[in-house]
Amino acid sequence: MSYDLKLGKAAAVAFLALAMAGCGGGGGTTMPPDTGPTAEEQLATLQAQVTALREQLGITDAGDIGTSIADLQAELKRLQDEAQARMDAEQAATEKAMAEDARKLALRLDASPLSFFNAGESLSATAMYGKPTTVTVTGVGGGNPNFKAENSKLLGMLNGWSGTELMSTSADGSVTDVLHMYTDIEPDETVPFAEWAGPASDVTWANGAVTVAAGNSALIMATPFATGSGSKTHELNVNTDADAANEVFQTAGTFGGASGTYTCTGDGTQTCTSAVASSDGGVLLAGAGATWTFTPDTGATAKVADSSYGYFGWWLRKTGDEYTRLTVLTAQGVTAAVTAVAGTATYTGLASGLYSIYDSGPKGGRFTAEVEFKADFGSAADAGTISGMISNFSDSAGTDPASMDTWEVTLPETPMAGLGGRFGTPTSGATAAQRPVWTIDGEAGTPASSTAQYYGYHYTPDDGGTPEAATGAFSAEYGVVGNMTGGFGVSHSGP
Hints:
Helix content: 10-25%
Radius of gyration: 36 Å
Shape: flat
Number of helices: 4
Number of strands: 28
Largest sheet: 10 strands, antiparallel
Structural class: alpha+beta
Distance between the termini: 92 Å
């Protein structure tokens, strides 16, 4: 027979069950019991599992593996063991690579003191509410990163700070720059048009009208004006006196978002033209003998962008397989001297940076966390003190090490400098009592060197002199096995 012994028994059991069901008494019809999959169905299922595993493992040998259930079960077990061994090897290789990368990152974190840029280097950042921040870096040794808008992405809003990730890769792929930037820029403020127009907005404003200039192109919009490319000539369409000739061209439109009327005036023979300013948009209004003005409607308003925002973040460079540069970025608006300020204030916000833990199961990556500072401004004769706490850590890169949710970094009480709004570690260096303390699962790690520190600058004083915000940087160590470096931004949130 073509069936093996096991298959014959299975078929016999199924036949006997059917026969017994058919001989039941009572004159009714009894349904046969469910005996599960047939031997043929079991064979087909096992064959499919074996075939799938062979494909997964790249085994192309189609030799005879037996046709009995026992043979297929044995082959399936062998293939499953082989697949598990491969998975274990891949996991081990991944963990080894992560450990090596954490070690390299630790060397950079340990070697880089908190800093801005070196002499001759600079960074300029421009923020627009709701859009990725644009950054330009110049003068960097080893080549300037080219942070392009298309390589940027929003990181979302955290504790009042909006984040942007910017990336740059050299032409040969050997250098990669990653920059995380956070700003506290606020939405545009709506103000009366007359309050916005004037020298501060580069608009010529007099007698209730704007004299339109070439530099205003980005503010100009009206349906008749040129779009796409090229230029248009607009026929005079308004008669301002009793004769039959039209002397001006007028159209409804907006200027800086405010509704109103554009007027092209002259001696009645002027040429009124509009043209697309550039590929970025905007409109140029011109023409021989023409003067263009814009008169806002009654009650018209304009949008004023926030110009006093601060920013902080970090910039990491990787050359080949090594981390070759780490810079912590902080900047602010008008610094707030606190010598004449008294009382207390609480500041809350966000921290962002890099960490590495490299004892058992080394890990390294990015973090974000919450920050709180308590400032005591002392008196007119005493600039006071400040202390803080960084907590609620999370790893946005998805490589969250165990116990990250238990991390805390204490920023010990230090004197505030008063003038210039500086606070934190003195410029002469931190004493042992002033160094940040990193706690994991309730156990504090003693800083291993004198590089652990924190500092910041208050800025944007309110009418009473209290600083409205601050940005700064910090570094912390967990014994000899952990390093952390980052920046922070906070806003005045209470007494």
